[in-house]
Amino acid sequence: MASVNKVILVGNCGRDPEIRYLPSGQAVANVSVATSSRRKDKNTGETIEDTQWHRVTFYDRLAEIAGEYVRKGRPIYVEGRLKYGKYTDQSGVEKNTVDIVATELQLLGGREGMGGPSEGDEGSAPPPARRPAPAPRATAPAARQAPAPRPASGFDDMDDDIPF
Asked: Full-prediction pTM beyond 0.85?
């Protein structure tokens, strides 16, 4: 029987990625991602926010991309698989870990903060300006006004009656 180990997270980065390189030259980036859910307490009616922190690991080219573009506070979409592990802490207590090994990454939100390593530069270009809509012109009475020319779209011979 086939099995599936898949995780999808949409959350905010809790810190900038830590990038390191293995002796083989393989890039590895680690980041923490916060996901939140809200619910109302039945007794008090108060809204309670529950935040979960996830450790995410990126490898190879995805690690380099994460290191260049992912920043603390930035919303991201991550797809990957769960990886369980154990380690012994300094006091000799065995601890369990759960990591997400990412296979996909999408940056969410706008293009702000897309500057990569030189993001701190204040000389970045402003967002593209939107052109305001032209003000409506005063029109002549319909009898005297010539019909506006229609752009040649290739659909002039079709009926305007759409059957659906």
From this structure: no
